[in-house]
Write a structure and sequence with these properties.
Elements (H helix, E strand, L loop, with lengths): L5 E6 L5 E2 L14 E6 L35 E2 L4 H7 L3 E2 L3 E6 L5 H16 L2 E5 L4 H12 L6 E5 L3 H11 L3 E5 L16 H18 L3 E5 L12 H5 L2 E7 L5 E9 L7 E7 L2 E4 L3 H6 L9 E8 L2 E13 L7 E4 L3 H14 L7 E7 L11 H13 L7 E3 L2 E2 L5 E2 L4 H10 L4 E5 H7 L7 E5 L2 H7 L3
Parallel strand pairs: 6-10, 6-11, 7-8, 7-9, 9-10, 17-18, 19-22, 22-23
Antiparallel strand pairs: 1-2, 1-3, 4-5, 11-12, 12-13, 13-14, 15-16, 16-18, 20-21
Helix pairs in contact: 2-3, 8-9
Length: 461
């Protein structure tokens, strides 16, 4: 047992501990160390078994061949899009971290899920360290209607008391909102600090795994949109969900950045209404609903998110630059990727963009991952530059290389079939993808092109 409080320096980026301050951490982050004091304790607060923490019993080795791969029991949250992102529902004993900006709807969605789980499976404990029980009750009345008898609330921030209350209540589902407000009595640091967030998350993890109770943990985000606290928290939990959306729009998108029991990069969509969050089953249709007439600089494209293709509208605008350098603005597209596409257009398509401002926007506020929208970005810029509309019945996908060639994209066949289902007449895509599709798709013309000039020429046919 230490005779006095120990002082350590903890990296806010990765959680690495050092006995002395350093300018750069082993993870590469600069000036990320903060000083934290550890109170004297009979037990190491970083190890299982301290007061208030349930160890969950002993484990024994088992034969790998005897382990059932389908042994995970899932709870239906009652929200189809949340079930999709989680991989089919909440796995018993799993720990899920959900993050998002303030006011985006995190508390709303977990309140709805808590009420539906309590109505179907039994006791649910909702722990809030930020809101009073009256505030939660008002929101629950608004979004849930009649509340189930098995939904319990607890306004507490001490992790030991929370786990003691959970041990007495024995819930089937535990929700903690939020992890930055909790503290462990064995640590002297303030709630929200690196050591407190890590210790409280570890305690909840041991409780959930030991008792077979799924745990939802709500977390704050930084100004940059990243998860607040050490990165080690993301490594501890089983699933990391990110809730995003624009406050002036009704669309809310929840994305799975990590999931040990399902697909990663899966997304679910909701519409924020007065009565709560309403799942959007046909997300592609909602993104394309404003694409009514043929407009210059507008083109449809697609990405494959998780387990489904997602069609969306991409817009571009070019205008003569004023005094100084031309402006490049991108919403939903990486600015470095846009600059590369502009260079390829100048070199291989003959567009003079040095003295023109270029604006690119993905309609709906979504930030698609991957490079499958490269061709759509290039064609939208070309359409705006030439003043020639592409049309609402044409969809373009493909990755553009520095030589102007089009590289293949994943799941092109599923994307083309989704385009046919939504009424598109033509899909422009890399030639290798077109050759792999094989049989023609009813009502859809598939145009396989080898490079960017060929894709531009295909617009006129």
């Amino acid at each position: 047992m230490p005779k006095k409080s120990e002082t350590v320096f903890v990296c806010q980026a990765c959680g690495f501990e050092s006995p002395k301050w350093a300018g750069q951490c082993v993870c590469g982050a600069w000036n990320s160390f903060v000083e934290e004091s550890l109170a004297p304790s009979r037990e190491d607060p970083r190890r299982p078994g301290r007061a208030g923490v349930l160890a969950g019993g002993r484990s024994a080795p088992v034969r790998l061949g005897e382990v059932r791969a389908d042994a995970y029991e899932r709870f239906d949250t009652g929200l189809s899009e949340l079930n999709r992102v989680l991989g089919g529902g909440i796995v018993r004993g799993s720990v899920t971290l959900i993050s998002g900006e303030p006011g985006i709807g995190k508390s709303t969605i977990i309140t709805e899920a808590a009420a539906k789980v309590a109505g179907r499976y039994g006791r649910v404990l909702y722990v809030s360290g930020e809101e009073s029980e009256e505030q939660i009750k008002l929101r629950a009345d608004r979004v849930c209607g009649e509340l189930p008898q098995e939904l319990y609330l607890l306004s507490e921030t001490n992790i030991e008391r929370i786990l003691d209350a959970a041990a007495k209540l024995a819930p089937v589902f535990l929700i903690v909102d939020s992890i930055q407000t909790l503290y462990a009595g064995a640590l002297e640091s303030a709630p929200g600090s690196v050591s407190q967030v890590r210790a409280c998350t570890s305690a909840l993890l041991r409780y959930g795994k030991g008792e077979g109770v799924p745990v939802f943990i709500v977390a704050h985000v930084t100004k940059a949109g990243d998860l607040a606290g050490p990165r080690i928290v993301e490594h501890l939990v089983d699933c990391v969900l990110q809730f995003a959306g624009e406050r002036d729009q009704d669309l809310r998108v929840i994305r799975s950045n990590k999931n040990r029991f399902g697909a990663t990069n899966e997304i679910g969509a909701f519409e924020m209404a007065e009565s709560g969050l309403i799942p959007i089953e046909n997300l592609s249709q909602s993104f394309l609903e404003s694409m009514d007439g043929a407009a210059e600089g507008a083109v449809a494209t697609a990405v494959y998110e998780g387990s489904r293709p997602l069609l969306l509208e991409l817009q571009a605008l070019t205008a003569p630059a004023g005094v100084g350098f031309a402006r490049r603005t991108a919403l939903g597209v990486e600015i470095a990727r846009l600059n590369m596409i502009l260079a390829v257009l100048e070199r291989h398509a003959g567009l003079k963009l040095v003295e023109r401002d270029v604006y690119v926007n993905v309609v709906g506020g979504l930030k698609p991952e991957g490079t499958s929208i490269d061709l759509a970005v290039a064609l939208a810029i070309y359409s705006s530059y030439r003043g020639a509309p592409i049309g609402t019945k044409t969809l373009a996908i493909g990755e553009i290389s520095l030589t102007g060639e089009l590289r293949t994209v994943r799941y092109a066949e599923r994307i083309t079939r989704e385009a046919a289902r939504l009424g598109f007449a033509r899909v422009i895509l890399p030639k290798k993808n077109a050759d792999r599709i094989g049989l023609p798709i009813s009502g859809l013309r598939v145009s396989g092109v080898a490079d960017l000039p060929a894709a531009i020429a295909a617009l006129a046919t």
